Each structure stands twice: as C-alpha cells, then as structure tokens.
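Summarise this fold before class:
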Amino acid sequence: MTIKITIIGTGLVGASIGLALASRQEQFLRTGHDKNPQAANRAKKMGALDKVDYNLPSSIEDAAIVILSLPQDQIRETLQFIASDLKEDAVIMDTAPFKGKVSQWMAELLPPQRYYIGLTPVLNPAYLETSFTGVDSARADLFRNGMMAIYLPHDLPEEAVKLATDFCQLLGAEHMFIDPLELDSMMTAIHLLPELVAAALLNSTVDRAGWRDARKLTGRPFALTTGALPPAGLASSLSSQAMANRDSLLRNLDILLDNLAVLRSQLETQEGEQFIAYLEKARLARETWLQDKADANWAAKEFVSPVEMPTSKQTFSRMFTFGGGRKPKKPK
C-alpha cells in the first residue's frame, strides 16, 4: 500500500523533493498542485510527480503527508483553505526559510490530530554558487549532502521525530533540530540580509548618472553580489519575512553598517595595513566556510554519530504508521 504525498508548490524545491522520492514509487504516490498549472505539468513530465490535481482541496484528499513548498506570504492563505480537508493524523510540512510566523499559523489553524513539522532545506554544496530557480532547475540531488533544519512543536508524538529524520534521509540531507526563534535569528543574518544587500547595491548603482556606460563593464563581482536578489514575484515574500523579523534584521543591518563604517574609516585615513588585514580576515573566513560546506561532514566535525539510511521497509513502516495509516492496536 502506497502513501500519498501531496506537494503544493512545484517550483525548484517542491519538484526537487518529488524527484528525490522518484526511486521510492512503490512506497509513495506523489500528487502535485500549483497555482500555475504549467509548472505542475512540467514537474510531472520530468518525473517529479505521479499525478497533477488542479483542485487544491481534492489534491490533499487522503494525503498522509502534505508539503507546502510556497513563498512565506502564501502559506497562511493556503493553510486556511486546506486545513479542514486534511485527514486525521495527516502530517503537514513547509519548506519556508523562517519558522516563527509559520509555526504560529499552524498552531492557530490546524485542526486537532493534524501534525506540523517545519523543514528549512539547505541545498547541496555542489550547487552553492549555481544560480537557478523554477521547476526547470529541479534535480533529484538538490538536497544531497545538504542540511535540513527541523522544527518539531512540543506536543508532537514521538513518531514525528522518526518521520522527520527519515524524510531528510530520503532526500539525502543531514538534519539538525532547532527552535524557530533561533532559526529565524540565524536566517535573518545568512539568508535575508544578503538579499537586501543585493537590492541596496543595485539601487545605489543603477540610479547613478554613469550607469548607462557602467552596465557594459559589469562582471563577476557585480553579478555574484546582486545574484542574491530573489527572482520576479517574490518581493512580497521578502517583505513579509523582513517585517516578521524586523528587530533581528535591524540588529544585523546595524552590524553591517558598523563594518562598512570601519572600511570607510580605514580608507579615509589611509590605513593600508589595517585595510588589508580586514580583507584577509574575510577571505580566510570564506575559504574555511566553503571547505566545511564542501566536506559536508558535520557529524565528524561535531562528534555526532551519523544516522543510518533507513531501509525501504523501515521508512514505509514509520511514515505509514505516523502519517495517516492505521496504528497498531494496543494489546487487550
């Protein structure tokens, strides 16, 4: 008997999840829904889905696991629309980078005996400097050797831990459990701030009088730095994330401005040695970070025993038991 998994949002992340599960077709029925039917059909054509359902409530009917792979500003509205249609014991996951607001919405809107697991995926280190978006960029190994941050609400059954970790293993990712406030604080610095810096650099450059000629000379440094800006259609989601994490973002902006002030001061006073030392410190930090990401051996670095890949039987049993299947009867 197969487990129905519904993926709502079949862009880069959603379609890649479907592709990663393609080798487990005997276990999972992968149903997809996207407000853009062309994206869902494309995902099915490339093998990420077994079925496309254009009706949102119908798509989650009898689904043991529902994955919301959506921009953050679309999650609450979608959850309001589907919450009453979730089957008893269904597990709902999301892949948004921030969890504070999402976890609040889940607590507010999910009916009893429907369970929430928050996932924040980090991509395969091999694709760290690759720029791609959308369903056509999806790939089965997008999460392999990456990290998956997992938020588990306190009232979840013990089986949820197994479900979450097994699911990460199926995607090829390591996992770490984290509090949503701690996660949001981290993601503000390493996810949100770079996107806003990219926007600031662009707006401070393209509005200058010399841009018409300067644009002809732009190269790799400008492209890499501004590449962090989200693609078209995600400005609303970025704004939603910024406003939801305003205090943390303001602190991080202040730290960034302090660092820029140090560079400006060293340049103004012609402190060449200090200027070089500042740049070298940054270069060495980046090299160390990239090497750690490429090694993808966090368990060894942090002296944590690696989690074994679950067998098909184990995965099926655990996910089916917790994710909407029949639970073993207690002995009389």
Observations:
- The longest strand covers residues 115-121.
